Amino acid sequence: MEYKQKSFWKRPEGVTGSIVLAGLIGGGAFLLYTFLGSIIALASNTLYLAAMLVALGALIYVVLDPKARNLSWYMYKSAMRWITGLFVKIDPIGILKSYVEDLKDNLGKMNKQITKLRSQMHQLREQIHNNNKQIETSLGQVQSAKDTNQESIMVLKSRQAGRLKESNIKLTDLYRKMEILYKVLNRMYESSEVMAEDITDQVKLKEQERTAIHASHSAMRSAMSVIKGDKDQRAVFDEALEYMADDISLKVGEMEQFMELSENFMSSVDLQNGVFEEEGIKMLEKWENQGVSRILGKEKDILVAGDKPLILDSARPERETVETNNPYDDFFNEK
Description:
The chain has helices at 12-34, 36-43, 46-64, 66-85, 92-147, 151-216, 219-228, 233-267, 278-288, 299-305, 329-334, and strands at residues 269-270, 275-276. It has 335 residues and is mainly α.
């Protein structure tokens, strides 16, 4: 998996850095404006003028010399990261652990949703079956009424059969949507379950690796690497962890969004009264037409197509082959 390096300014410490930098520029401009007269007066003194020229020369040197500029930039970023860490959790390992907890918590909620949806589907299938039996009965009564010239009964039972057929068309369409929802929930549950266990194991390993890297690459050694133009191994490793955390957060967000959609869909269905809101179906159709799922990948299109029949009486839909390769290994190995 490839990832783009996140700019310093797009990170939490970058926000702090922007505020501090704006404050320094604003404060410097204010002080310059306030004490401009005093500075001009001091410049008339040769000694003070020489000191100011030395300070200006040092500033120009820092700006123009690559090594000095890199060291200053490294120190500034380190300071901003330390300040930000006082108020915001920016430790990538800690963030990953919290996401894993959210993922496992969502798995429990999703399992309850699957059970609830399964129950609704059983009720709906039974209702469709009963309607079909009633249609057959009504059509039989129509034929009997026709044979005995009971026109009023014939009309009544014909209309009753027509209404039941129309109802079954809508209920069958609703059942197909539930079938898709059930398959997607199950597949998302399976993928998320594997992902949670995999990430838990990987976080343990990466925590050990990070401790070793931070121990072997001290702040001074990292600064020297920056001066030489080499990569700071601590920062590079943390960047990979941050990308991993960002990707997992998006997957957790997608999982929670689909769970909310599922809950709204199921809440819109009143099987006892045979009523369901069109809004619930529209929400599911909107999700079907959205882009590729981060959790399901290209398999989303297969599930939405619904080519494989669902055997509701089985314990769970047949489990597909789950991707065994860890998607985060590649860019850690590259580093």
